Amino acid sequence: MTITVYSKPACVQCTATTRALEARGLSFDVIDLTQDDEAFSRVSDLGYRQVPVVIAGEDHWTGFRPDLIGRLF
């Protein structure tokens, strides 16, 4: 499964999300929305207006969600 975290600099919830993914030993990519207009459009099209946005396979959510991170394999 591919996991992507869409983030912005100095985002506390983004840092918490990536640390939780690392703690579970999960591989993921981080994309800075301030540096990638295409990625910004992609998450906006999904209806998200805050970060982090996590896309894990077919699932996606926003915010620090340890409950959802715990379900990832």
TrEMBL record:
Fetch the Gene3D superfamilies from UniProt: Glutaredoxin
**Superkingdom of origin organism:** Bacteria
Q: Which UniProt keywords apply?
A: Disulfide bond, Electron transport, Redox-active center, Transport
Q: Keyword Transit peptide on this protein?
A: no
| The protein's name in its UniProt record | Glutaredoxin-like protein NrdH
List, alphabetically, the PANTHER family matched: GLUTAREDOXIN, GLUTAREDOXIN-LIKE PROTEIN NRDH
Per the UniProt record, the lineage of the source organism begins with: Bacteria, Pseudomonadati, Pseudomonadota, Alphaproteobacteria, Rhodobacterales
One short Pfam name that applies is: Glutaredoxin
Q: InterPro entries, alphabetically? A: GlrX_NrdH, Glutaredoxin, Grx-like_ET, Thioredoxin-like_sf
Task: Show the PROSITE patterns listed in the entry.
Answer: GLUTAREDOXIN_2 (PS51354)
Which intervals hold domain Glutaredoxin? Answer: 3-61
Q: Which gene encodes it?
A: nrdH
List the SUPFAM superfamilies: Thioredoxin-like
- Please describe what this protein does: Electron transport system for the ribonucleotide reductase system NrdEF.
Say which family it is in: Belongs to the glutaredoxin family.
Annotated organism of origin: Pseudosulfitobacter koreensis
